[in-house]
TrEMBL record:
GO molecular function term, any single one: S-adenosylmethionine-dependent methyltransferase activity
Domain Methyltransferase type: 86-183
Name of the protein in question: Methyltransferase-like protein 7B
Domain of life according to the entry: Eukaryota
GO biological process, alphabetically ordered: methylation
Residues annotated as signal peptide: none
A Pfam family that the UniProt record links to this protein: Methyltransf_11
Keywords assigned: Membrane, Methyltransferase, Transferase, Transmembrane, Transmembrane helix
Gene: Mettl7b
InterPro entries xref list: Methyltransf_11, SAM-dependent_MTases_sf, Thiol_S-MT
Naturally occurring in which organism (per UniProt): Nephila pilipes
Residue intervals passing through the bilayer: 6-34
Amino acid sequence: MDTSILSLLYIFIGFSWWVVALTFGLPITVLLLLSKNFRSAFFSWVYANVAEPLQRTKVCIIRKKAFQILKDSLGDRNSLVPLEILEIGVGQGPNLQFYPKNCNLTALDKNKFFEKDFLRNRKKNPHVSYKKIVIQPAECMRGVDDNSFDVVVSTFLHCSCDDSVAVLQEVKRVLKPGGKYLFLDHTGFPEGDIGLHIQRFFNPLWSLIFDGCFLDRNPSKEIKDAGFSDVQLQKYISPSFRRYLLRHQILGIATK
């Protein structure tokens, strides 16, 4: 689809969102504004039952690409030794299917309402040994020991965390020396692109529905400046017109 036509389409969709949110959907909009608990519960339901199933096929492509990077970075790892993995912002567990065999997973998420769906999804992926789930924000992972993980995974986390710098310092703290941080996130359009203005037009409602997610963030600089010994970062542009707002993405791996 032509870029200008696509931009006009999403401008129309954006206006429609605002009209619905301020008319028929006003009671829900008010609840989302006033209640953090309702916002978290609403987001977990929308993401697990609407957003993720609708986008699953397209998003699986980039998730698979990210975990191939992890596989390549692990090289000739002794597969007989369990891989200790911490996933932060695990949600309902859409990454579990891509995990390598013989790994022990500690799952962390600040949203307690994802836990039921995560436990259900875990049963579909018996190749992953589950250790525990921690309900904490990634900025302050109390109860997670220093130097205890071979790999930390985050996908679409920096878009909605409160402080990317704090998250990255915690990631470094809990990784073993030489450990790997696998990241995948959507980012804003380049400066000056009409897409960036459209993302910012959507942002207030988007962040309410998706519990603090912002469309125009880009954690690339924070990751590069976090003090990892090596950072390999790639950019990816989704070809799907349905993923226009999330078109620009980054993925890669950083080594402690």
